[in-house]
Amino acid sequence: MAITHVIDTHVHADHRSGGPALARKATARYCLHESARVDIPFEPLRDGQEIELGNTHIKVLHTPGHTPESACLLVTDFRRGTDPWFVLTGDTLFVGAVGRPDLPGQARENAAQLYASVREKLLTLPDDVEVYPGHFLGSGCGTGMSGKPASTIAFEKRWNRMLSLSREAFVDALADVPPKPVEMERVMAFNRGETR
Predict the structure, then answer these.
(1) What gap in Å lies between CA 141 and CA 180, rounded to an integer?
(2) How far apart are CA 46 and CA 128, in angstroms?
(3) Environment class of residue 168 by beta-carbon count within 10 Å: exposed (0-12), middle (13-18) or buried (19+)?
(4) 107 with 174: CB under 8 angstroms?
């Protein structure tokens, strides 16, 4: 099996990404959403774009809010059928929580974008689509995360308290976030390619 694409769902603030190095080593494409502002060469991904990998197709869903370039990856395996199987949500949607909007600044504006992204892009997916987030309990990228590493859209609709809130209440709730990661600026500079 050949690695053809290495995709970061967003520019991370809490850890150094190994994506560019893996892409170079595997001679694969390093991909980010087209709105990413980095000094690293990458293949830009567009909202709605489909990546065909044999029987498996990945659909890019631009879901700004945690960061402007955040994207989720909706995966369909045509050996199983034509309905999507699972979604890799990065730091947009967690089990029991959503991503924090304050890391890039403009927290309230980003929280409003996150609300729209979750409502319009993720909660419209079929209920049985599995959800695989980028983190679970113990991460500083959100509050109220479960220790459960995976979920489904239906489970999140029923049990994720953030998803039952009005837009205004959602934005207000996201004002209560943990302190930013201590090394955030250095990590982000590394992931943008400013210190390689």
Answers:
(1) 9
(2) 25
(3) exposed
(4) yes
Give the list of residues 6+ apart from residue 41 with CB closer than 8 angstroms, or none.
30
Q: Where are the domains of the chain?
A: 46-178
Q: C-alpha angle 170/10/146, rounded to 5°?
A: 50
Q: Which residue has the tokens 């959503």?
A: 98
3-state SS, the chain, equals CCCCEEECCCCCCCCCCCHHHHHHHHCCEEEEECCCCCCCCCEEECCCCEEEECCEEEEEEECCCCCCCCEEEEEEECCCCCCCCEEEEECCEECCEECCCCCCCCHHHHHHHHHHHHHHHHCCCCCCCEEEECCCCCCCCCCCCCCCCCEEHHHHHHHCHHHHCCHHHHHHHCCCCCCCCCCHHHHHHHHCCCCC
pLDDT in tens, 140-171: 566 677 778 899 999 999 999 999 999 999 99
Q: Positive or negative, the Cα torsion across 40, 42, 185, 17?
A: negative
**CATH number for the domain whose boundaries are 46-178:** 3.60.15.10
Q: Give residue-wise pLDDT tens across range 9-57.
A: 999 888 889 999 999 999 999 999 999 999 999 999 999 999 999 999 9
Whether residue 101 contacts residue 159, with contact meaning beta carbons closer than 8 Å, is answered with no
